[in-house]
Amino acid sequence: MASAQFGSLGPGSTGSVDTGSVPPGLLFPPTPGIGAGPDVEIVEGPDVETAVVMNGLNVPWDVVRAPDGTLLTGERGGRMFVQRPGEEQRTVSIDLPGLFRQSESGLMGMAVDAGFDQNREIHVCWSRAVGGERDNRVTTFEVDENWTTMTRVRDTLTGIPLGADGIHSGCRLLAAPDGSIYVGAGDTYGPTGPQSLDSLAGKTLHIDPDGTPAGDSDSVIHTIGHRNVQGLAIDPDSGRVYSAEHGPDVDDEVNLLQSGGNYGWNPNVGGQYNQNVPMTDTEEFPDAIEAVWSSGAPTLAPADIEFLGPEWGEWEGALAMANLKTQKLVLLRLGDNGRSVVDGSVLLEGEFGRLRSLAPEPDGSLLVTTSDADNRDSVFRISPAAG
Questions:
Q1: 310: helix, strand or coil
Q2: Is residue 246 left, alpha or beta, with left meaning phi > 0 and alpha meaning psi from -120 to 50?
Q3: Among the listed residues 319, 308, 301, the one whose alpha carbon sits nearest the alpha carbon of residue 371
Q4: Is 312 helix (H, G, I), strand (E, B) or coil?
């Protein structure tokens, strides 16, 4: 993950220091004036309004909204918070035995099941280490009607690799309109995972809520050749599925996902992890799919993406991108084919700190989580300004 950068990258460098491993009280100054990549024209964006809806949090990695209007967010350290309509935020009990909370791992992505009104199920992606067993996994929980306890129903998908230092775990979940779930999986800072069909590392995965492969596939693997997927979104008009992933010190990417596609990340150099290689290596993999958008240098550190609805006027259909290191929300207007960027806009630069996740609301606004640690984090809402 390309979050707060410290020093230059080499074969043995992670390229980032995240809030899971920094001393309390350390501030993360924004990196201003970068724009949105070398080929994106920055234009004036929409007027917006913001309002904090939950606060006093410590690295809330994701936020979801249930059909009854309840908001749920989980701190990477394992606490789960709920805010029901008209009530104050409070904790909700959840048992995550063996939670591994280090660096870029812990309690992370969440998705509300399509059948929530009937089964009250929430899917959670988290890191587990017990004895010699360790993985990132998707576990399905049932929450009671009063939102006091989340009870484990099943381990829906296990065996997503977890690196020894907790680096590059991915763990973004996306619930699709058909009820299936997409999962972003990082390369765990290991050399062979992204290009190996015997590993779930460095992939996007596609499953049904019971953990079986979605659709007609005989594998949960959807795409290969990724570094660290932390953003997933579906264009509601076209049904196209996009990912956002962190580059090392260059080339964050937004990718249009095609089932079975190879996105060209291969850090395996002589059996060692070396990230001084192209994010999309078309020389080694001639069929590798080029990115829709690339940051070039320097990186922005995109952590999540979401499409804007009709409430955003001329920005309807734009891809919103939350960024960590550069502490801003970037809007990208895509071309009709979904494979190019027309122009972009920059919002909220440095106003809320590091931005990690995005979740849509029925009124077209977005819920955003921050990632500054030390109980300084919040969930806030951004909306197009009235009038």
A1: helix
A2: beta
A3: 301
A4: helix
